[in-house]
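Two records follow; treat each independently.
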Amino acid sequence: MNIKQNKEIFKLFSKVVYFKHTNIDCKKILNLNNEETFISKELKDKNKKYLSLASNNKKVLDQLKYKNLKKQIMKEFYEYSHEILNYKNNKFKMTTSWLTKSYSGQESNYHNHNNCMFSGVLYLKTNENSGGISFFNNENFRFLLEASQYDALNAREFIIKPKTGSIIFFPSEMPHRILKNESNEERVSLAFNFLPVGHIGGDDDSQAIIK
């Protein structure tokens, strides 16, 4: 007699990453950011690979010319926060936004974003070889095992390859980096951070109002 056994897999306490290809007119956006200036952290690693550049302006999307783009990004973000994460009673504010550029051979180090809850990236210009985004699981693994196949359940590093028009959202504490641009074309992206606004917390002294 065969007894059917039901099996369930619980992905407990996951870090939820949202990735989607949009129809945002990226060429139009690129034409609008010609006035932005960029800086490098002027650091080199041992292999003399320069780091990617970031715009001096950290409030890019607060400019009037980006008003419609900011609305589109917020709409996509609420799809992530309201429909995927079910934070339907919470509103959010975009706190910072900046452009990044990676020329041939450039990349970034692993980092996360402080003083925010969620972060995101819109890819304005990219190709197959200009570098994806890598996420790293920095939990303290007691054993390092070799899997027959790596996926989101067992990998310490997870790489996503975006296309022009792709958008991604993720918890700000997740370590991530821009992979090396192996092409001869510049890679351009627009990054942003979010905080919840309004009343948060319970009925005890941990509650707060964020404006």
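The next record belongs to a different protein.
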Amino acid sequence: MTGATGFVGRVAVARMAAAGLRPRLLLRRREPELEALASEVVRGDLRDREALARLVEGAGSVVHIGGIVAAVRPGDFQAVNAETTAALARAAVQAGARRFLLISSLAARQPELSPYAASKRAAEEAVLALSQEFSCCLLRPPGVYGPGDRATLPIFRQLRSGLVVVPARRDARFSLIHVEDLGRAIVALLQQPAASAWDGVPLPLDDGRKDGYRWSELAALAAERLARPIRVLHLPPSLLTPFTGAGAGWARLSGRPVMLSPGKLRELSWPDWVARAEPERLPPDGRPQLDFSRGFTSTLEWYEKRGWLKPRRSAAKEAQP
């Protein structure tokens, strides 16, 4: 398994271990908590071809979660997300692996929008090119959130503040999935390889909300949980274009990636990120259990307990003896 140190990877490893599956992990550095759940650790990273070969040696299944969501240069997405996936898939074939599970992204549905989306589509195509050699499952999760996620932390901060500012059309719709539901799906698929999701046809996931959410609907659900009104302010994406260009320049100069790149803005501006999931292709125990209403509360409480968000006054009072 790759990507164990990431947001999704940590949850997947924990769920796999709880189910009696102890994966061999690719790790660059010491991670005692993860290593305690692993059967073995291979030192290295995704660009280390020898480490990839050691990782898949004798493996029956390969789970590939590793990759990047932000980059200094657009070409970095192709190098890390697509080229390393192709190398891992070739190594899996040479090692005789029977199954390859790729955690892709719903962004792969629109590869023209950004270098990230294009790299995820290219990663899928690299796996599919070898689908005669092994069974493959291509999972396309939408926006993933939950305890431990720093990427969606700003959204939770805005929801709690009562004002959400988004560069999106008012009619834009999108799907979500809680990280625990994604981890549940991964484990269920590994335990039941005969499920139709292993046919190589991309499988979109969501939290069970058929038509996804509008930002106003998301705010209404959060407002109900917080017992306070939340306003949504839609900004024309064009207003942010100069800032994304400046951010890309800063990334090149500083060597540090920025999240709001021109490509990411195009993704955020796209009106239709509804997953249109096919739950019947998942084993029953891999289907979603947490809608946003429930997931919002547990995630917000985690952020507050860990100090990522200051506790709400009401929550702080409840915590006092």
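Discussion point: Residues 74-95 form the longest helix (22 residues). How would you locate this feature using only the token line?
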